[in-house]
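the two lines:
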Amino acid sequence: MEEEEEGGGEEQQQFSYRQRLKAAVHYTVGCLCEEVASDRGMPFSKPAIAAVSELTFRQCETFAKDLEMFARHAKRSTINTEDVKLLARRSNSLLKYITEKTEELAQFNTEQKAKKKQKLEEDNTRAVVPAEAAAARKDGP
Amino acid sequence: MAEAMAESYNRDSEPTTRTLLRRVLDTADTLTPRRRRSARVSAQKALLETPSSRRLSSPTKMNVRRRSHRARSIGRLAHVHTSGNLEEQTPRTLLKNILLTAPESSVMMPESVVKPVPTPQVVQSSRRESSRGSLELQLPELEPPTTLALGLLAPGRRKQRQRLSVFQQGMDQGLPLSQEPRGNGSASSLTSSLNLTFATPLQPQSAQRPGLARRPPTRRAVDVGAFLQDLRDTSLALASPGDSLRTPVATLPTDTVLEDTQPFSQPLIGRSPSVYHSLPCLSHTEAEDAKRAVSHRTQSSGPRLQNHNPGKPTQLLAGKAKKVDALAVSFPNNSSAVSGEDGVEPLQDGVGEEAEERMEESLSVSKVVATTGTQGSVRMEKSKGHREMTEAAEAKEPEGSSGASLELASSTTEFLQARRPQFLEPAPPPSAAVLSSEPLEPLSTRLPPRARTPGPRPRQDPHKTGLSHYVKLFSFYAKMPMEKAALEMVEKCLDKYFQHLCDDLEVFAAHAGRKTVRPEDLELLMRRQGLVNDQVSLHVLVERHLPLEYRQLLIPCAFSGNSVFPAQ
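prediction for all of em together
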């Protein structure tokens, strides 16, 4: 009895959680649709927006499962940009966009790493130079 | 009395089974022979040596028993024992019955006149006959009790057995079934296992264990060398006409192969060479490539290959996947090498046909064959993929052609390379690359010069011809007449579908850092399609839809000797 209630409670919680998520998605979709409508000059009907948001929600679920499968397929436990790219391969424009973004990110990361390395090297050289100087001084005279 | 006399008389002459049995029966106790024998062994060894050592390789128990028997007075009347024991059905009683009723005939000598013997003895004597050459008297321990008991208890069953034995003999020997005793023939018959001595037809050994009687013939591994030699011979003998020529001719002989309902049965092996001969499609180079592929393949392909192999010639010819299947199946090959031969393979699906068509074209190019050979071998690895494999290969082709030569994720791409001659130049390098990551560059470099030989027309044909089989299937299942335009649309859709499929497979394989498509990739694909989910696994689908032979190849199963097939 208690378990059922707890289980029921959990389900309810899950359900309400889902509803909240759906609501958030619906709101975002609504905003995007308004943007597109103002761009194209053609308004969206409410049922249409609802349909789109429902579709988006379900597709997100599918994406999540697929991403997890891809990561497991590559014997990893974390989802990678590679997995995302694999997911987006169907639509060329999307794939292009994603690859560009990943490249940007990668570049950014490498730049950051380069900077860090430079800093480290500078510190090392600063430390090394005085040490060498000290050593030279000792060896010399 | 008479028995004792007869016994003594017999003893003087050469000891036959009969005499020994007599001795045993005379001297042994009625109780179970096994328990008390050891005490008497030493005393009677000398007596037993001469008769027993000569012919008998009897088991120890028998020896012990005989020795213990020897301890008894030899002159004991046998009939005392015989009379009391009929009801007990001990081995001893059974033996006694045999002795009493069986004719005095030597096991070794053929009998001109064999009298019909009561069935219990038939069973017994048959068994004795089966162990001819050695007067092994295992009988008491093993079969006589059961068989004789059965014989005594169920005459109907005996008759069945006789009939079975006759049938078996007829089958095995190809002789006309007859109920007459065939004592004459037996001695001269070659197979000692088929005991046709004594009296009424005896059961061959296999019939004694009906469970084993119908065991299918063991499949022997295809002799790769001979197979390749045949290939070469046929390819040399036959010209390599254009694809269009091949296809119609090819379809004819393969039709006959298709009809075989046991694709994996052995007899097809014998037919395969003939099929090859009938198939003009094999080009000389193909054989060569096949050989090369074979050498390459041996490492890469695992047991998965088995069903794929020899489909190659049929594949080339048959636009029909079935044909391919039949042929491929007809070789219960265990050798990956054999599988390597075909570029053709595996595609048991119609998609393979498409590939085949393209392959044919490519095959016309000598070097291309090499790639196909490698591809074929590669393809073999994808036992599951079937068409997906080829599709993946197709998918890869565009990629390969774009220049990513050696990074083909799936071996099928190799195949694709061969498939699309227009991409052949970039294709050969990629195609070479895939197979088990072996450097096939020498092959690929040789490919480009020859790649241009197939003209534009053959390119179109193989592109779609492979799908004609599926289109026909579609029109069949539609159960209503269909317009040609509709069928063409269907073909287009199928083409796209397979291309997507192979693209996906290739990408999945690359995603896992592999170059060959494996069943895991296919499972992932099916998951995405929704065919495989948490409730339904891939194995379940295999069991549901594929024939048993494929199931054996795909689902690992433990066999005797601590071996799992197919190996993981």
